[in-house]
Amino acid sequence: MFRNLLSRLFSDMSETAALPSEDGEVAIAALLVRIARADDRYSEIEKRRIEMVLARRRGLDHNEAAERRAAAEMIEAEAPDTVRFTRSIKDRVEIEDRRNIIAALWEVAYADGSRSAEEESMIRLIAGLLGVNDRDSALVRQRVLDDLGISGLS
Predict the structure, then answer these.
(1) Which domain holds residue 113?
(2) CA-to-CA distance for 118 and 131, rounded, in angstroms?
(3) Is the pLDDT assigned to residue 85 strictly greater than 80?
(4) What number is the average pLDDT over the span 71-80?
(5) Which of 54, 97, 123, 150 has a 20 to 30 Å separation from 138 between CA atoms?
(6) What are the Co-chaperone DjlA N-terminal domain coordinates in residue numbering (predicted)?
(7) CA 26 to chain centre
(8) Residue 80 in 3-state DSSP?
(9) Is 14 within a domain?
(10) Would you say the C-alpha torsion 80, 81, 85, 91 has a positive or negative sign?
(11) pLDDT of amino acid 61
């Protein structure tokens, strides 16, 4: 199953057809996992935040979101470098949803209420790879901080 998904994600990039909805969401979930693991501390609070984001994005219940996160953990561990992984999403996801993905990444990065240079650096890389400019990423980041009620991290 996971090999098939990886094959679909990294298939001929000249075919810019949209990812099937479920494949796209697992790929996005895998990016969320990659961010949470970027600082080598993948905490329960980050796992729960990923599940909340996944549930909110597609109306999943708690069990479905937990299953999708678990699948994403396996996909993320097998996925190639972030550049290729992100490109496969960029070529198949509309720009507005890419901004929403960046918001979700910031939300996961700040789930534990602290800054991590590794997570922030990875999000900046991913934002650029997804075609979201620095200004838009910064605006999204500030909105997420405001929504989470976190101050002093901007």
Answers:
(1) 2-9+21-148
(2) 20
(3) no
(4) 86
(5) 54
(6) 26-142
(7) 9
(8) coil
(9) no
(10) negative
(11) 96
The identity of residue 9, as a single letter, is: L
| Model confidence, pTM | 0.85
Q: State the CATH number of the domain containing residue 71.
A: 1.10.3680.10
Count the domains in the chain: 1
129 located within any domain: yes
Closest CA to 110 of 20, 6, 36: 36
Distance of CA 16 to the CA centre of its chain: 20
Q: Which helix (H) or strand (E) holds 40?
A: none
DSSP category for residue 114? S
CB 62 within 8 A of CB 55: yes
Q: Is residue 75 part of a domain?
A: yes
The DSSP string of 123-138 is HHHHHHHTT--HHHHH
Rounded to whole angstroms, the Cα distance separating 79 from 60 reads 24
